[in-house]
Specification:
This protein has helices spanning about 10-25, 35, 40-50, 60-80, 90-100, 105-110, 155-165, 185-195, 205-220, 270-280, 295-310, and strands at about 115-120, 135-140, 175-180, 200-205, 230, 240, 245-250, 255-260, 285-290, 310-315, 335-345. With about 350 residues, it is an alpha/beta fold. The protein has a seven-stranded mixed beta sheet with strand order 5-4-3-8-9-11-10, sandwiched between helices.
């Protein structure tokens, strides 16, 4: 019997949640209850799943692994009330000793480096090998990268829109998708890898971001696929279209996605101009934009600008999942994200 088969359903659920948070590099993890932490089989499964040498193909940064393992072993020690019958895993202690003995980068240098982040898509069915679907990205975790772009990390708006699409896969299945301001490519990869899009074009205005998009396509084993590609696209400029057969980069487009595109008012006119070009080319196109409401006035500026150019904005009632109810991906629900269906009036 495998070690994980010895665990109760409650223990298994807590283990899965902790592992998913760890792989997503969450700063505050939900540590399992002490009754589970003190259990030898539970500790062995933790080691096998997260900390063994070959446990994770794309592991978190060393500094993060060390911090979590120190917190985990301290939590286990506090959970043990009878050291004659219970104990702390030798394997976990060995991993901790190895990390403590290894040289660490400074926090400043570590913050500027890219790290592997794996997002678990808990609302999708398991894959053929009974695994929960995931998307792995190489991201810069600090707020703004050294190049001055915010597109090298995945933001809450993308994760929330992704959750909506996972629960409404018919919007994507069999469709050709254009992702505007794709950033890390989370939405594009979700559509291409798990939601059955016939084709996805991930675009961004930054050359550096597009280069990172290509890397993330490789990370998800789609480099040989004709399901996804990445390209630079600047809003408001002439689209790479062929008017003779009404295509965009040689393809028709059914769905346009975008997340966190409206946070800066100065970019809104160019974005709406691109909406106009796309709807002229593809009158039946569906446009879905996720807008984080950091400032209600900024969002209203976007709505008013759309109306001025003949677009209506309908906000979906799909709500934010409270953080303590999330099973992956994990993101803050403290700031609302509006999911907007934009259409020509």
């Amino acid at each position: 019997m495998a070690m994980e088969d010895e665990l109760s359903l409650g223990a298994r659920n807590q283990l899965d949640r902790f592992c998913r948070q760890y792989l997503q590099l969450q700063p505050d993890l939900t540590y399992p209850d002490e009754q589970h932490l003190a259990d030898g089989a539970f500790q062995a499964t933790l080691h096998k799943t997260l900390f063994a040498d070959d446990a994770i193909q794309h592991p978190p940064p060393q500094r993060y692994r060390l911090r979590v393992l120190k917190e985990l072993t301290e939590s286990i020690e506090q959970s043990i009330h009878d050291w004659d019958k219970q104990g702390l895993s030798d394997d976990l202690m060995s991993c901790l000793a190895t990390l403590l003995a290894s040289p660490l980068q400074s926090e400043t240098a570590s913050a500027q480096q890219k790290a592997y982040v794996t997002y678990t898509l808990s609302s999708l069915p398991a894959t053929t090998n009974n695994a929960t679907p995931t998307v792995t990205l190489l991201e810069t975790r600090n707020v703004i990268a050294s190049a001055g772009t915010t597109g090298l990390r995945t933001w809450e708006a993308s994760l929330h829109l992704g959750n909506f699409l996972c629960q409404s896969p018919e919007l994507i299945r069999g469709k050709s998708v254009l992702d505007l301001g794709a950033g890390t490519g989370y939405l594009s990869l979700l559509c291409a890898k798990h939601l059955g899009a016939s084709y996805t074009l991930a675009t961004d205005g930054s050359f550096d971001v597009v280069e990172s998009l290509i890397t993330n396509i490789y990370l998800n084993d789609l480099q040989e696929s004709n399901l996804i590609s990445a390209s630079q696209l600047t809003w408001g400029q002439v689209l790479p279209t062929d008017e003779s057969n009404r295509t965009f980069s040689g393809r028709t487009i059914d769905v346009v996605l975008g997340a966190d595109l409206t946070y800066h008012e100065s970019g809104v006119p160019a974005l709406i101009a691109t909406f106009g070009d796309l709807t002229d080319l593809f009158p039946d196109i569906i446009i879905i934009i996720a807008a984080t409401i950091r400032n209600e006035q900024t969002f209203q500026t976007f709505v008013n600008a759309c109306a001025k150019e003949g677009f209506s904005v309908k906000v979906s009632e799909f709500g934010m999942v409270p953080k303590d109810k999330q099973r992956g991906p994990f993101y803050s629900a403290s700031t609302n994200v509006n999911l907007c269906f934009v259409s020509k009036t």
